[in-house]
Amino acid sequence: MILDIPAPARTVLEQLHNAGFAAYVVGGCVRDSLLGRTPGDWDITTAARPEQVHEALAGITVVDTGLQHGTVTAVAEGMRLEITTFRTEGTYSDHRRPDSVTFATTVEEDLSRRDFTVNAMAFSPETGLVDPFGGQNDLKMGILRAVGEPQKRFDEDALRILRGLRFAARLGFSIEEATAAAMEAQKHLLPALAAERIQAELLPLLGAPGAVEVLRQHREIFTVILPELAPMFDFDQQNKHHLYDVWEHTLHTLEHIAPQPDLRLVMLLHDCAKPARFTIDFRGDGHFYGHAAESARLARQALERLRCPKELTERVVRLIHYHDHDILPTRKSLLRWLGKLGEDDLRALLHIKIADNLGQHPRYLRVDRFRATLAALDALLAEQPCFDRSGLALKGGDLVALGYAGPAIGRALDDLVRAVIDGRVENQKDALLTFLRQ
Asked: Which of 52, 83, 155, 327 is the most buried (most CB within 10 A)?
């Protein structure tokens, strides 16, 4: 077996080998190569100590980036290559990072400290594939399995639980039974992780092809980092429009939205307040009045706790807040929504409504209506209509020349936008000036 190693990485391997040191590409790049995927990064592990790497890679820029872990970074032909000395690790008192690192003499020792068998493989042109834990077979079987004792792996580093879920979602793999059981048993360690690290695993997980099945199979783990999800589990909606409980409805909507982290977050949290807002009318039908606004509030609470970027948080909260509002395919309605949300968010909102509807009872699908609204939006935008201040034929400077000042300028511009949208005045400078004088 031969891996297609890029030239800069091959050069580094050759120079280390020529200097007398074993060296291998390792981890994710080997895994992805065996799967026929293009690796995003190429990492190297070697018997050479950091100072020996510097000496062996003459003519290549080498930067010390993690000497406490035996790691340096080489920059060869513009490619960054992380190079780490074979090592073993001591105890993990904080369930995240090893208290001590000891340099090892063989690649097998180094691989034994890694998280999952599919990530515990190494390759060199001289020795071929090194796979002491059966990672290649697990790749063929589509199984994610911890290296060694699963509970120990997750007790060492609780972030491996989320990494495992992300790998399963990205690769479409099932998680081996003992490994899954250990994840569940150690999930109580997750709150000790930095919010930024949790977020960094969660967002790509939600955007991965297998996200829905991972959420379905391992939902209890997610409640540790997103307790807002738990009330949705098995909650009967008692409404003829809904075939599924709140959680299953949520998962079905996720299947029908684009695999973007922001849109997946919207669908994941759009109904999280339904159980709290549940009421039953005199006919025995369930209702969830005000759930959209309350779900938006809970979404903000969750995303701020996870230290999500402000722009992402605001967009998710905004779209959840409006997800249950009616959007008519009329010119006036679409112009008003464009003024409120802008084109990108309005398009996203219509796709959210389609996904939401596809997660309901098939008898009550209204997808054609929403698609017709999208078509009406396209036709309207082709006219380049005015729906906010930037589209007005009259600008702030024109109002200053008329004697407007301060906040009165903004109020007048907003009045003009509303008048244009309502069809009370044409968006032409003379007509707008006449409207103002009147």
From this structure: 83
> Is 90 within 8 Å of 100 (Cβ atoms)?
yes
Yes or no: say if 409 and 398 are a contact pair by the CB < 8 Å rule: no
pLDDT per position as a tens digit, 226-257: 999 999 999 999 998 899 999 999 999 999 99
Query: Using CA of residue 353, residue 358, residue 360, residue 366, what is the dihedral sign?
Result: positive
How far apart CA 310 and CA 75 sit, in angstroms, is 33
Q: Which helix (H) or strand (E) holds 163?
A: helix 159-171
State residue 268's pLDDT score.
98
Whether 386 contacts 336, CB under 8 Å: no
Q: In whole angstroms, what is the distance from residue 329 CA to residue 376 CA? A: 6
Q: Low-confidence residues of the chain, pLDDT below 70? A: 1, 90-100
The phi, psi pair for 36, rounded to 5°, reads 80, 15
Within 8 A by CB and 6+ apart from 259, the residues are 207, 208, 209, 211
Residue 149 falls in which region: left (phi positive, over 0), alpha (psi -120 to 50) or beta: beta
Phi, psi of 280 (to 5 degrees): -120, 130
Which residue, 220, 256, 223, is CA-closest to 355?
A: 256
Distance between CA 266 and CA 254 in Å, rounded? 9
pLDDT at 1: 65
pLDDT of residue 405: 87
Confidence (pLDDT) at 101: 72
> CATH 1.10.110.30 occupies which residues in the chain?
142-225
Contact 98, 92 (CB under 8 A): yes
**7-138: which CATH architecture?**
2-Layer Sandwich (3.30)
CATH code of 142-225, in short, is 1.10.110.30
The pLDDT of residue 95 = 59
d(CA 148, CA 176): 13
Q: CATH 3.30.460.10 spans which residues of the chain?
A: 7-138
